[in-house]
Design goal:
It comes from Campylobacter pinnipediorum subsp. caledonicus. This protein is an alpha/beta fold. Helices cover about 35% and strands about 20% of the residues. α1 packs across α5, α2 runs parallel beside α3 (about 105-115) and α5 runs antiparallel to α6.
Length: about 180
């Protein structure tokens, strides 16, 4: 079984923010084959199809690990893939990683503290500007919005490949240092 976690913050207030790009990708992956198996014990929205689970934690970013741990303890997946925003990558860049440091990302820190860091990560670049907190909790600008759907579609295809193959194969095929149409 594979657990794919998209990181973000719950509530409408944060729905379209840069920090919620993980949630946006889970929404892209969701289709009618997935069944909602959410439970209050999971502290998140959980969807299942065959051997794939999708998770959007209902905790705030800093407590994402609580939800991931609950789902991990219950389903005991063979692999965990976490999708999250990355300030240190240019907008639209996509990189893959297994283990390593959190890079200062509070959602990743929370997961690492509760289950360790032996999981795969898909990092989607959001760039960096001004005050970090205001930037990650801010909405995408108009230019970013024009290409966001294409970036998410590309990342969706990367995840679908990652499900079928190992991280090194997906990394070779889908790593992007910069989105081709980024402004």
């Amino acid at each position: 079984m594979i657990l794919i976690v998209g990181l973000g913050n719950p509530t409408e207030q944060y729905k379209n923010t840069r920090h919620n790009i993980g949630f946006m990708l889970i929404d892209k992956l969701l289709n009618s084959d997935f069944v909602d198996v959410s439970s209050s014990k999971f502290q998140g929205d959980v969807y299942k199809h065959k051997n794939t689970l999708l998770l959007k934690p209902n905790t705030y970013m800093n407590l994402s690990g609580n939800s991931v741990k609950a789902v991990n303890d219950f389903y005991k997946p063979d692999r965990i893939i976490v999708v999250h925003d990355d300030l240190d990558l240019s907008f639209g860049a996509i990189k893959f990683k297994k283990g390593g440091s959190s890079g200062g990302h509070n959602g990743i820190k929370s997961i690492d503290n509760l289950i360790g860091n032996d999981y795969e990560r898909v990092r989607i670049g959001i760039g960096r500007a001004g005050n970090v907190t205001n930037f990650v909790l801010g909405d995408f600008n108009d230019n970013e919005k024009k290409i966001l759907d294409d970036i998410l579609e590309y990342a969706k295809n990367a995840i679908l490949e990652l499900i079928k193959n190992d991280i090194s194969y997906a990394s070779q095929k889908f790593t992007l240092k910069k989105w081709q149409n980024a402004v």
